[in-house]
């Protein structure tokens, strides 16, 4: 099976992965790399597709291969690095880059895996365009993160929206739950306590597949010397990791201050306002409790593994106090070296304790519970408990959390009742450097002015050998053909009728237009095509920080116009159809020109396709921005089409 794994943000590398570099490079980077390597070991062809970044490091290398896994970095109009929360406006453009990659290589995947919501959105669009099955792996979910931030940070919904763009993320996540072939989560908790917050939750579609882990057999000890039993915290400097408050809680215990010490470790990463403020707070605690709290930044994962071994030999524990932990890869790494754990009870950690019994769960909002559990496991009177958890970690974790088992589960999901992908391919009549010109027929050519129409026909006939002409119309085939014949227009190779619902191509042997595809109508009154926003949630800020219910969605009642929502392109169906058509023609998207009326075409200005905008209705253009790949015509109707097409040809 040919599998493409989408990783949108670009900070992934086969040889020098940097987990913890920033919020985009957490445990999901290790998850994707190790999962893809195991897929390749089990004879699947695997390609990781990500963004090319304009940096003088490994992220600017266009292609890599290691252990039979390929990694391809695709260029966009801007290769500047953007954090994942700021990638939403570029989803269509990156999707176009993926389609181009498939067309140029004349190879389409049997399965797409979208990791995290941004890459999931790309996988969703590829599925709607090319009908390729896809698996969505959330890693974390927007509703859960929003709820926890509202509970624990002094910010309101507007401030969080500005920073994280939750409305867009949650919007796409709803569609992913609706259209994904399968949603794969790591734990029962993630399925039944997080995914259920979404309107489109379907228990049958969501599969719990525990990931594997891989850790090196390290014998080197850490250079960090411990004076007392260590409590190890390892995490990125992020609010959701909840690193500061537990220090203040544990410092309340005289026994813990006298017998233990907190060692907080993170990897060197990108400095942000968020990480800077957390670092300052941690350093303040180090000054307040110099014999109780220490803070280290490491350059590599290996140094953290060494710390785990040294902490085990000193009789310590690993502590994860996150507000929410979707799974807990670092937890399993620590436990695999024999370090007992104390974990937040909010997340996939509950599954880990149930499956391999390596420690305790705590309520991070209950100070007494936190102090009591940690004190209990570290008390010299309870060495049999510490030994039990340590031995369970050493002997059970790697056996239970296996990438081999993960692959077998993914294979069973993909082979169960999945019909083969239908690939419609038109006869190869065009050269590789052919152009596809798609013209919005209504209003541009469906006129009765004979002079410019005659000029347009003469103009188009110059390029008939190396040109595919497509008319896009809201009308049916018969009505469109009648106008073409009456106006003596050039006959197109393809008609896109009824706004994309029906596609016809000209069959030269039959000398008539034959149906290529009938799309199920995605347009419904008072909705925005296949993206349903009539049932969006309404965010409610939590007033009680100890409440477990911080977001309501009012049974998905009528759409609230005051809610900030991601604007869905009005022409989304046509966009999908056009990209499907180009894949059938085996013509790259940058060899396509779409000609449309300015009044209807502004939303189309995205991705790799060139656009000609004809201002037939004398709309004001003085405030229009210049877009790469978009030409604004000075003339109208057919004359404007000739002007714009000439510009690109």
Q: What can you tell me about this protein's structure?
A:
This protein has 649 residues and is α/β, with parallel strands linked by helices. Helix 1 crosses helix 16 (403-415), helix 2 crosses helix 3 and helix 3 (116-130) packs across helix 6. It is 37% helix and 17% strand. The protein folds into three domains: 2-212 and 408-415, Rossmann fold (3-Layer(aba) Sandwich), CATH 3.40.50; 229-396, Rossmann fold; 435-524 and 568-648, HAD superfamily/HAD-like (Rossmann fold). Residues 221-383 form the Glycosyl transferase family domain. Belongs to the glycosyltransferase 1 family.
| Helical percentage | 25-40%
Low-confidence runs: 521-568
Corresponding CATH architecture of the largest domain: 3-Layer(aba) Sandwich
Tally of helical runs = 21
State the domain count.
3
The multimeric state of the shown protein is single chain
Shape: elongated
- Sheet with most strands: 8 strands, mixed
Mean pLDDT: 84
Task: Kindly provide the name of the CATH class of the largest domain.
Answer: Alpha Beta
Total beta-strand segments: 22
CATH H-level name of the largest domain... which superfamily?
A: Glycogen Phosphorylase B
Rg result: 28 Å
CATH topology of the largest domain: Rossmann fold
Strand content: 15-25%
Whole-Å distance between the termini? 40 Å
Strand order of the largest sheet: 3-4-2-1-5-6-7-8
Alpha-beta classification: alpha/beta
